[in-house]
Design a protein that fits this description.
The complex is a heterodimer of chains A (90) and B (779).
Chain A (H helix, E strand, L loop, with lengths): L5 H7 L16 H9 L5 H10 L4 H11 L4 H18 L1
Helix pairs in contact in A: 1-5, 4-5
Chain B lengths: L7 H10 L12 H33 L5 H10 L21 H13 L5 H11 L4 H15 L11 H13 L8 H10 L9 H18 L5 H12 L8 H10 L5 H13 L3 H17 L10 H12 L5 H17 L2 H11 L7 H33 L4 H35 L14 H6 L2 H27 L9 E2 H11 L3 H14 L6 E4 L15 E4 L6 H67 L6 E3 H8 L9 H14 L3 E8 L2 E8 L11 E5 L16 E5 L12 H12 L6 E6 L5 E6 L4 H8 L2 E4 L2
Helix pairs in contact in B: 1-2, 2-5, 3-4, 3-7, 4-5, 4-9, 5-9, 6-9, 6-12, 6-15, 6-17, 7-8, 7-9, 9-14, 11-14, 12-13, 12-14, 12-15, 13-16, 15-16, 15-17, 18-23, 20-22, 23-25
The chains are: A mainly alpha (90), B mainly alpha (779).
Chain lengths: 90, 779
């Protein structure tokens, strides 16, 4: 499906390296701040969590909503972004 | 019952039971998996509900009148065995297998009394609520067993009917159509008691709650059910049950109402909050058969209250049930409640075994308290899940702050009121016994005269106070604050004829009194001090007494004014702070921009300088406006003007490698910048120029099969100069993949244009991606 945002495409196009967590699709300033406070300051840390949940989008969405005040759309976007990244690079 | 606190392994295995392979359960993933487990259980229940509805209707048709219990128990024993370990939502997963089928049987049993199919739903939902139900149910069974002195206990299965009877009792709604059935049930329950099916009993009770709710006539049952289903999903529910409950409570005629909520509460509540409220409600109920439940309350509490309304009959059995229920409640609840419950139990009925039952019940109850503690931990686990994020923390504190502010406001109001009142009421006015005139007064007059004088003065004082108060409040009928002597005389005579003689005397005494007696005397002109009775023209009160509304109004106004002033001051301070912050932030931003600009200028100048080194045709300086125009977009020039100015100033002051001078360019004078740093030694190192093409999915590598990568056309061997250019290339490659230590070997083939590189298999993709699209700069 081509309904991915520019951010999504940017993220998935290259290895995430040391990108901050706000580079993830669906994660803006507020969520990024909230994640950083909890220790998820880099995108790869969030990736780690995603992988811990066995790349399950649904579980990842639960987790993200728990940990931050993310809404469904944001969580879905983020999960999709990570999933695509994993498909490309893992 | 084993600990309801799920360990990681248990969570893991339970998730596996649902056919799902979970990842590792860590502290991060734990809440997520708990939620998943909850969802699985919900789905399971939904399936069961669908199945159960069918079986429920079939069972109800087959039951006869005399011993429906047996029938049901039989049916229950053949009922469906749970394939899964537990069907309770989330909180306790470690119930023994024996309990769960019983529990389920009990709920099936509940379907029996010709209830609508919805009941099934309700029961399952309610069952799903807390694990404490299990423990409490057990206790309930035990409690009922202990009451065996009242009820003969023929067989174990009859305990089921006991529970049944309890349920029936609850369903005993005078307006309900099932009254006949429940009467019959009540009869049947007499010989009932049992231990073995105690769990069944207790589980039934839970179901019965739903039954009785089902029986609720009309509206409350319906929306309540829906509410309950909604609230089950949440840990802390705030249902508007209070009003409903109160209405229900008032309908109760019997004492058992007080006890039943306890029992119900015990069944339902495993939560501390719940228990506290329950306790409160119970005390109220025992007092006045009304439950003053706080609005926020889990649904089970409300269920209990509903049952309160259901019981229309003062039944001996009912009371016993209630007693046992309350015992259970006391058992289930924290130890601190124990003491409170026993006194509530004792006034409830004159039954001798009441007191004995609690004691008995406490024994087995102690071991049941343990589940509540781990339950709460589990609750806390979920609570942690639902903890408000940092964003809503402020909202939480804001609400608390508003609450305290409101309380303070009302407190202030009260204080102001009191102060007003204090100022209004004269000191020691009501008692004529004490007077400020001294002992002379006492000695010079007889008692009756003294009384008359004092009474006169008192009435005068009061009258003046009222006049003054009314005047102060702005009422029209009292135009002036003080009364003339004639008016005073008139008034006093109207009060009492005896006063006539003593008016002058009392006035004289007022003058003589050294202290303020609440009346001020003045002469012809206002504020003249009078020394003699004859001079008195005006009398005024110094302690005006204002009417209540006036006082209140004034108090309110005063408080509001003060609050307003405080608020204005606070607002000013806040606004000042905000403004200062804003300015500071702006400053920071601009400084950052300025430094950024400075850096860019330096870069431009440096590159220009280096270019000039090679190309002698170029002028070694750059005019400042030209630099600006090349760095700043036309649309931004206006905005960045200030920043640019600051950058220029900074450069001229702080940058030593750039010299500002004036040059003539094409006939016009320009301020120019000259880069005066001598060029650094060129290291001739390979440099990556940048990306040749954007990197996206098309260019992403498929999963590569080999650990080798080959780079072609990276360099031209003919063009390379120097001895160690191959090393330079290798270094460039390594540098590019500096954080990727997957490279095992690099070899530069000098003859061809290729570089071969061996990379560990897992990293091939990432290494590739690092390089692809990059171009090597050849020096």
């Amino acid at each position: 499906m081509s309904t991915t945002s520019q951010k999504h495409r940017n993220f998935v196009s290259e290895p995430m390296a040391d990108k901050p967590v706000t580079a993830l699709a669906g994660i803006g300033d507020r969520l990024g701040h909230s994640l950083t406070e909890q220790g998820y300051d880099k995108a790869y840390v969030v990736l780690g969590q995603f992988l811990l949940l066995r790349k399950d989008s649904e579980l990842f969405c639960y987790w993200l909503k728990d940990v931050t005040a993310a809404n469904s759309k944001q969580a879905d976007d983020c999960a999709q972004c990570l999933k695509d990244w994993c498909d490309a690079f893992l | 019952m084993a600990s309801t606190q799920l360990t990681d392994e248990e969570l893991f295995s339970q998730l596996k039971c649902f056919g799902y392979t979970p990842g590792p359960v860590t502290e991060n993933t734990r809440p997520v998996y708990l939620k998943k487990l909850k969802k699985f259980r919900e789905e399971q229940q939904q399936q069961q509900r669908g199945k159960g509805r069918v079986s429920g209707t079939s069972s109800s048709s087959s039951t006869g009148a005399p011993r429906p219990v047996k029938h049901d128990v039989r049916r229950l024993s053949s009922g469906r065995r749970p394939g899964l370990k537990s069907s309770v939502l989330g909180f306790s997963s470690d119930e023994s297998d024996a309990e769960t089928p019983l529990k389920r049987k009990g709920l099936d049993h509940m379907k029996r009394p010709s209830r609508s199919p919805h009941l099934q739903q309700q029961q399952l939902k309610i069952r799903a609520a807390t694990p404490l139900n299990e423990a409490n149910k057990k206790q309930y069974g035990v409690g009922t067993a202990l009451k065996s002195n009242s009820f003969p206990n023929p067989d174990g299965q009859t305990s089921a009917s006991l529970g049944w009877e309890t349920g029936k009792r609850y369903m005993h709604d005078p307006e309900s159509r099932d009254e006949d059935v429940s009467d019959e049930e009540v009869q049947n329950s007499h010989p009932v008691n049992g231990r073995s099916a105690a769990r069944l009993n207790t589980s039934k009770l839970a179901g019965e709650y739903s039954d009785s709710d089902e029986e609720e006539v009309g509206g409350p049952g319906g929306p309540e059910r829906d509410r309950r289903s909604l609230e089950l999903r949440r840990i802390y529910t705030s249902g508007p049950f209070a009003s409903h409950v109160d209405g229900g409570g008032s309908r109760i005629g019997g004492k058992n109402c007080a006890l039943n909520p306890l029992g119900n509460r015990a069944m339902a509540g495993g939560r501390e909050e719940f228990e506290e409220r329950g306790k409160k409600g119970d005390l109220d109920a025992s007092g006045g058969l009304r439950s003053h439940m706080l609005p926020r309350k889990p649904i089970y509490l409300s269920l209990g209250e509903d049952h309160q309304s259901k019981t229309g009959e003062n039944n001996h059995i009912n009371r016993e049930e209630g007693a046992s229920g309350s015992n259970m409640a006391s058992i289930a609840l924290r130890p601190r409640y124990r003491g409170s419950y026993s006194p509530t139990l004792s006034p409830q009925g004159g039954y001798s075994n009441h007191s004995s039952v609690p004691n008995h019940a406490y024994g087995p109850g102690t071991q049941k308290k343990k589940p509540t503690a781990p339950e709460d931990e589990l609750l806390l686990q979920f609570k942690r899940e639902e903890q408000p994020s940092s964003g809503s923390f402020s909202a939480h504190y804001l609400s608390m702050f508003l609450l305290t502010a409101a309380c303070l406001f009302f407190l202030l109001l009260g204080l102001m009121y009191i102060r007003m009142r204090g100022s209004g009421s004269p000191a020691g006015d009501g008692v004529i016994k004490s007077h400020p005139f001294g002992s002379n007064f006492d000695s010079s007059y007889s008692k009756t005269e003294k009384d008359v004088i004092l009474k006169l003065l008192l009435s005068l004082h009061d009258h003046l106070a009222i006049v003054a108060g009314h005047h102060d409040c702005g009422e029209q009928q009292y135009a002036s604050r003080s009364l003339s002597r004639e008016q005073v005389t008139q008034y006093l005579l109207a009060q009492d004829g005896d006063f006539k003689d003593f008016i002058d005397v009392s006035l004289e005494w007022i003058i003589r009194a050294g202290q303020d007696v609440g009346i001020r005397l003045s002469g012809e002109l206002a504020d003249d001090l009078v020394m003699d009775v004859s001079e008195i023209s005006w009398l005024e009160s110094t302690h005006p007494r204002m009417p209540f509304t006036c006082r209140f109004r004034r108090a309110l106004l005063t408080v509001m004014n003060k609050v307003l002033v405080v608020a204005v001051v606070v607002g000013l301070v806040c606004s000042v702070i905000c403004y200062v912050k804003y300015r500071w932030r702006r400053e920071e931003e601009e400084t950052r921009q300025m430094y950024d600009m400075v850096e860019r200028i330096i870069d431009v100048l440096r590159t220009h300088g280096e270019a000039c080194q090679e190309n002698r045709d170029l002028e070694p300086y750059l005019p400042i406006p030209h630099v600006r125009d090349s760095l700043v977009q036309p649309q931004d020039r206006r905005k960045m003007k200030k920043v640019w100015e600051r950058a220029v100033k900074f450069l001229s002051a702080n940058e030593s490698r750039i010299r500002t001078e004036t040059q003539q360019i094409k006939g016009a004078d320009f301020m120019v910048w000259r880069w005066i740093q001598p060029p650094l030694s060129s290291d001739k190192s390979k440099m990556w120029q940048g990306k040749a093409f954007p990197l996206d999915r098309r260019n992403s590598p498929p999963n590569s099969l080999t650990p080798c990568l080959k780079i072609r056309n990276m360099f031209d061997p003919d063009m390379e100069v120097g001895d160690s250019w191959d090393l330079a290339i290798q270094e460039a490659i390594l540098e590019k993949c500096s954080d990727n230590d997957g490279i095992v070997h690099i070899s530069v083939d000098k003859n061809s244009k290729e570089v071969s590189c061996v990379v560990s298999l897992s990293r091939v993709g990432s290494v590739f991606l690092k390089w692809v699209g990059s171009v090597v700069l050849l020096h």
